[in-house]
């Protein structure tokens, strides 16, 4: 994943849209397929993966907001 600078609300909105698209393409499709197939185990697994991807994205941006401590 490349590092980008978010300095405006517009930059954040663009990042959020792009990140959401990536998450839906990678994790959402597995969830949709599991739902179509009525596969309970796969639904749980892919639902958890989707939730983790969303949480990871939020932590990714939060970590960028927190100033790094100097040694």
Can you describe what's shown?
It contains two helices and no strands. Helix 1 runs antiparallel to helix 2. The model has no long low-confidence stretch (mean pLDDT 86).
Can you lay out the helices and strands and say which pair or pack?
Blueprint: H1 9-37, H2 40-65
List descriptors.
71 residues, elongated
Largest pleated sheet: none
Mean pLDDT score: 86
Q: Report how far apart the termini are.
A: 26 Å
Order of helices and strands: HH
How many H/I helical runs? 2
Summarize the structure.
The chain is mostly helical and 71 residues long.
């Amino acid at each position: 994943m490349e590092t980008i600078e978010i300095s405006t609300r517009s930059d954040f909105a663009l990042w959020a849209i792009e990140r959401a698209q990536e998450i839906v393409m990678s994790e959402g499709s597995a969830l949709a397929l599991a739902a179509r197939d009525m596969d309970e185990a796969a639904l749980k697994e892919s639902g958890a993966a989707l939730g983790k991807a969303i949480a990871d994205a939020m932590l990714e941006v939060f970590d960028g907001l927190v100033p790094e401590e100097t040694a």
